[in-house]
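[step 3/7] fold_predict: job queued, chain A
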Amino acid sequence: MKSPLQPQPIARADLLARLREPKPWDAVIIGGGATGLGIAVDAAARGLRVALIEARDFGSGTSSRSTKLVHGGVRYLAQGNVKLVREALEERATLLSIAPHIVHPLEFVVPCYRPLERPFLRIGLGVYDLLAGRRSIGPTRWLSRAETLARLPGIRPEGLRGGVSYWDGQF
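[step 4/7] structure written:
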């Protein structure tokens, strides 16, 4: 039996028939990539009747060639943009909560070769974990050289000091 809480696919012909209905739309969004879909979801959540028009399938254009990361803004820490990191972490948590069927946690492993790389990452990812707080989706772990080589067997072993694993999200 199918769960009433899980979204069920609707045939494209049925969707096209809905577009032809005489009832007016509150918003018509052209383009079903990441931005168009985000706008459509936001408008629908506000109670608007929304039509999302995409030539092929949702996310099949430029968005289909992206990394599909739903990151918490770890890269913004290097820029000192803590406000943006907090916002990205909140949005990631929201997406993981409302769309667990399409957004999932993803572990990243970063090898460290330079002497100051591990301490720099330890500080940065420590702050990231603190900012994530209850929204954390996995612990940051410091990996030995052997663990890093086992996790990333194709990397250059010369000069490897170890690594770090941390978590973000992905569509």
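[step 5/7] annotate
Helices lie at 12-19, 34-45, 74-77, 82-98, 117-132, 145-151.
The two ends are 26 Å apart (CA to CA).
exit 0
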